[in-house]
């Protein structure tokens, strides 16, 4: 009996762990998926990546037929370039990612990655190619090491640590009494919004996909930490020639983008570099002016959330 119970106990532990992981993956999918993903076409092929260029062509989309989000959205992100999408709240910035990840299909028009219509490729290969740092990242009731490892399940501890270093959160983790073994998530240690965002960035850097999507990924950070993190992210993206899309309310995070797309009421109203858009004195210019005057008032109050 003793001989038998040992392996059974062991199996029990593995089983419980597997169940927990599956459960967590389910939670993740439920949180992220929002609805049933469209199925693959019978002849769908894996996405063949050639640098990760993105093209939206005359895309129309509505969550509800009586309220169109996009009527005719077209834009292009060349392979290896950094594009920022800005615009008033609710104009459809996050929806761009939901369409790109195929949570929904456009009602009209097409989306291409490296020339391939994304509705024609295998969903799994599409999602493997894209990494996202969403507005609010789910953390699981597990330790920090596991939480970051969700980016790539076969990553070693050293690779996880390397990712957290790049995401400027390694030193913060090290200072915790249990370090990387600190339990986070619903019943775990309460961590700040900024720490959570940096763990989410570490997760996506570990995944290291061809295309990265940052949806307000640094909004909870103070100006200094945000600046440091953006500098790291930018140099990594450049070094690896990754294609990226940034959504940001704080325009100072998009100043260096190769191109800024300004959305309003579901359409691109302006696009260009920061300097070009300032010169154009349109919507971007007025958003910039407005933020600059707000920041002048708010900045001295900020509490630095820095890695020291
Ligand atoms: P913000 O800057 O405030 O994050 P956004 O520009 O990213 O906004 P989206 O999240 O893309 O905007 O949403 C665009 C519009 O679609 C909003 O009016 C939103 O209320 C609506 N919307 C978003 N998700 C859904 C959904 N699942 N079902 C119905 N309407 C939705």
UniProtKB/TrEMBL annotation:
Shown chain mapped onto the complete sequence: 322 to 629 of 755
Domain of life: Eukaryota
Source species of the chain: Candolleomyces aberdarensis
Designated name of the protein: Iron-sulfur clusters transporter ATM1, mitochondrial
Quaternary structure note: Homodimer.
Location(s), subcellular: Mitochondrion inner membrane
Protein family (similarity comment): Belongs to the ABC transporter superfamily. ABCB family. Heavy Metal importer (TC 3.A.1.210) subfamily.
Residues of the ABC transporter domain: 54-290
């Amino acid at each position: 009996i003793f001989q038998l119970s040992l392996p059974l106990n062991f199996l029990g532990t593995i089983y419980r762990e597997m169940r927990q992981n599956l459960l967590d993956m389910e939670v993740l999918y439920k949180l992220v998926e929002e609805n049933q993903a469209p199925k693959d076409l019978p002849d769908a092929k894996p996405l063949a990546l050639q640098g990760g260029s993105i093209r939206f062509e005359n895309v129309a989309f509505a969550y509800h037929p009586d309220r169109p989000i996009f009527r005719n959205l077209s834009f292009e992100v060349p392979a290896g370039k950094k594009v920022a999408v800005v615009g008033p709240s609710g104009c459809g910035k996050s929806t761009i990612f939901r369409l790109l990840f195929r949570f929904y299909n456009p009602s009209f028009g097409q989306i291409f990655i490296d020339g391939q219509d994304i509705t024609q490729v295998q969903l799994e290969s599409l999602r493997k190619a894209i990494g996202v740092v969403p507005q609010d990242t789910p953390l699981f009731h597990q330790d920090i090491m596991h939480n970051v490892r969700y980016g790539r399940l076969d990553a070693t501890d050293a690779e996880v640590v390397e990712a957290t270093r790049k995401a400027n959160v390694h030193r913060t983790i090290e200072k915790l009494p249990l370090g990387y073994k600190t339990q986070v998530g619903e019943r775990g240690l309460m961590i700040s919004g900024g720490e959570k965002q940096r763990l989410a960035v570490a997760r996506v850097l570990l995944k290291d996909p061809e295309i990265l999507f940052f949806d307000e990924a640094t909004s909870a950070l103070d100006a200094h930490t945000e600046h440091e993190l953006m500098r790291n992210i930018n140099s990594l993206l450049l070094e690896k020639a990754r294609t990226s899309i940034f959504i940001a309310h704080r325009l100072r995070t998009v100043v260096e983008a190769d191109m800024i797309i300004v959305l309003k009421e579901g359409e691109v109203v302006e696009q260009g570099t920061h300097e070009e858009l300032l010169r154009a004195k349109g919507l971007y210019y007025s958003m910039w002016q407005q933020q600059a005057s707000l920041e002048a008032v708010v900045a001295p109050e900020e509490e630095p959330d820095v890695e020291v």
